[in-house]
Structure to design on (188 residues):
């Protein structure tokens, strides 16, 4: 019991440090790092194991960055029970911020591709841009930093909650995350 308390306390200290160091919604470095660890955690290392449709990353990033938001979403995920109004409002705000973040993520991904850290490929069948990480081009210490342990735990929690996440269409992901929880969504 004492060990869990110490872990929670350590996580709180890390979160305080990260709040001081990063603006989680707009910081290029924080978003870039989270994109890279998402791709690594999902095993997206080549064209065969790619992440389908990079725009989904925009909707996943807030969940990876915020444990309480992830827990709120998991509470209602696929149980076909509409959340209370205050939770719907939190999900609605998260959805809108995610929509606005897509352009930023595009810019980051094109920069990462230019630096050969990721590969992007047009998916003719789905009409999407798919992505994978080029791990050999990224320093191992970058992907294994203890500073982002909480985000890695959140990625694993999200993987458990949403099966086949990396291959889902954006439409299906948006339905499961937002539409089924009372948030009106639209596709680009």
């Amino acid at each position: 019991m004492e060990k869990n308390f110490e872990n929670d306390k350590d996580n709180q200290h890390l979160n305080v440090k990260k709040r001081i160091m990063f603006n989680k919604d707009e910081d290029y470095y924080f978003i870039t790092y989270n994109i890279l660890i998402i791709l690594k955690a999902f095993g997206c290392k080549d064209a065969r194991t790619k992440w389908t449709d990079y725009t989904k990353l925009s909707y996943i990033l807030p969940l990876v960055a915020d444990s309480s938001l992830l827990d709120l979403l998991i509470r209602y995920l696929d149980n076909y029970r509409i959340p209370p109004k205050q939770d719907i409002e939190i999900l609605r705000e998260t959805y809108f911020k995610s929509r606005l973040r897509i352009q930023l993520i595009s810019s980051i991904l094109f920069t990462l591709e230019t630096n050969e850290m990721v590969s992007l490929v047009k998916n003719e069948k789905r009409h999407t841009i798919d992505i994978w990480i080029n791990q050999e081009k990224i320093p191992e210490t970058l992907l294994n930093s203890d500073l982002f342990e909480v985000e890695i735990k959140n990625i694993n929690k999200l993987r458990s909650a949403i099966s086949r996440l990396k291959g889902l269409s954006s439409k299906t992901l948006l339905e499961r995350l937002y539409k089924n929880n009372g948030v009106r969504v639209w596709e680009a």
About this structure: The helical segments are 2-21, 28-41, 56-65, 67-76, 85-114, 140-143, 149-161, 170-177. The chain has one domain: 25-181.
